[in-house]
Amino acid sequence: MRIQTGAALLEGCVLAVLEKGDAYGYVLTQQLRGGLDLSESTLYPVLRRLQGDGLLEVYDQSYQGRNRRYYRITAAGKAFLDELRQEWRLYCRAVDDILAGEREDG
User: Helix (H, G, I), strand (E, B), or coil: what is residue 92?
Assistant: First the structure.
């Protein structure tokens, strides 16, 4: 697919996956790869940014003798995700109108 994923869209997708339940990096990557061209090296800076903005929390949990770092969406993250969803719907309508040739100038 030629359409590039911007930072805000990627953040929204990460938050949407985490809204369904806590996950660790590898699982997040696999879930997002279903619709996006994404690598773990792209994902981790997004996770750090979302954590720094207070939109997700991080905790470690032991699994087979190793720690896994899990990510959980916060209340602020849910509110931000709701805003992104509203903006996305407006954006999609505008792009659909343009691609369908229905958008008028002015």
Answer: helix
